[in-house]
Amino acid sequence: MHIADLHKGMLGANGIVGGGAPLACGAALTAKTLKTGAVAVAFGGDGASNQGTTAESMNLATVWKLPVVFVLEDNGYAESTASAWSVGGDPVKRAEGFGMPGVQVDGHDFFAVHAAAGEAIARARAGDGPSLLHVKLNRYFGHFEGDGMTYRAPDEVAGLRAMKDCLKLFRRKVGEAQLLDAATLDAMDAEVEALIDESVHAAKAAAMPTAADLLTDVYVSY
Predict the structure, then answer these.
(1) Cα(38)–Cα(20) distance, rounded to whole angstroms?
(2) Nearest CA to 2 among 147, 21, 16, 213?
(3) Phi/psi at 195 (nearest 5 deg)?
């Protein structure tokens, strides 16, 4: 969950619902002040979209014309609460209410998301301020490992998988466009599966951690 890679511009994540938007505004303000050309991206779910921090961040980003893109990953559930029950109105119109453009995009379609993100990033980089991407997609697994998903209908996931599968859609589109052939895609799948197996075996064969390992990568050394 808490993944960060400063060399790639990933500042990290946090466990606070709606906590990423204010941080992204700070990163965007830094980029604008230092004129680095960087664009900050804040990711949040349908639950985060209802938080005051998100609304305040969208307002601030518009007022200060910050180079930030707000991405609402709407998978239909805020942990176990259905967004159809808890999210009022249209998120795109919410964005428009703050004076920023918003667009809804099919989150199962890699190319649709890529195109929409490219437009929003280009707009931010040109100094035209923030945008919202309302990415609609489905969640096939639980919110956490071991989540029984008893809040969903028994056949809901199976029905969604039958209608839309992002990997199958990607495979079909790149095949139709003759960007990649089936053999190449199969080889990629095999390579990834082998890497996963190798990593699992290495982890199981590794020595148990020592007490000294508890402080590894916990504190920054200056």
Answers:
(1) 17
(2) 16
(3) -65, -40
CA 22 – CA 50 distance, rounded (Å): 14
Q: Is 50 in contact with 86 (CB distance < 8 Å)?
A: yes
**99 located within any domain:** yes
Roughly what angle, to the nearest 10 degrees, separates helices 52-63 and 20-34?
20
Whole-number Å distance between alpha carbons of 195 and 38: 33
DSSP H or E stretch at residue 184: helix 182-205
Q: 153 with 180, same domain? A: no
In this model, does residue 2 exceed pLDDT 80?
no
- Distance (Å, rounded) from C-alpha 40 to C-alpha 26? 9
Dihedral sign for Cα 104, 68, 35, 2, please: negative
Residue 22 has pLDDT above 90, yes or no: yes
Residues 101 and 141 in one domain: yes
DSSP letter at 107 equals T
Rounded to two decimals, the pTM is 0.87
Cα–Cα distances in Å, from 119 out to 59, 112, 115, 123? Answer: 20, 11, 6, 6
Would you say residue 10 lies in a domain?
Answer: yes
Q: Which stretches does DSSP call E strand in the chain?
A: 40-45, 68-74, 77-78, 81-82, 102-106, 131-136
- Look at residue 1 in the predicted model and tell me its pLDDT: 65
Stretch 117-128: mean pLDDT, rounded? Answer: 97
